[in-house]
Design goal:
single chain; 106 residues; alpha+beta; 4-stranded antiparallel sheet
Length: 106
């Protein structure tokens, strides 16, 4: 045998996922972003980051990047279902365990 496994831990241990990074587009209309943010908040999700970026090929159109923190995956999944009607080009970049910060709180 040429290669031997160092350890046999299969399946891998489940990691509690509590953070996600997504992007989405909204219409350029009054309250469009507020509707999306309200639907996220109703699911008890914290936005740790919200960033807007213009879409170069579309005038007055913006893409939004959001980092979301939650306690249960159900909260995240429900929020995605709820915002689909008010967004387009919804992308999930990743769902993962929130990391620890490098700075200590005083």
């Amino acid at each position: 045998m040429r290669f031997a496994p160092a350890s046999c831990r299969w399946p891998a241990p489940a990691i509690k996922k509590n953070k996600a990074s997504i992007s989405f587009h909204t219409d350029h209309s009054r309250g469009a972003l507020a509707k999306v943010l309200t639907k996220i908040a109703v699911n008890d999700i914290n936005l740790s980051k919200l960033q807007s970026m213009p879409i170069p090929s579309k005038e007055w159109q913006y893409s939004f990047h959001a980092d979301m923190e939650f306690d249960k995956m159900d909260q995240f999944e429900n929020a995605l279902k709820n915002i689909k009607t008010d967004t387009y080009d919804l992308k999930i970049f990743g769902v993962y365990k929130n990391g620890k910060t490098a700075f200590k709180k005083k």
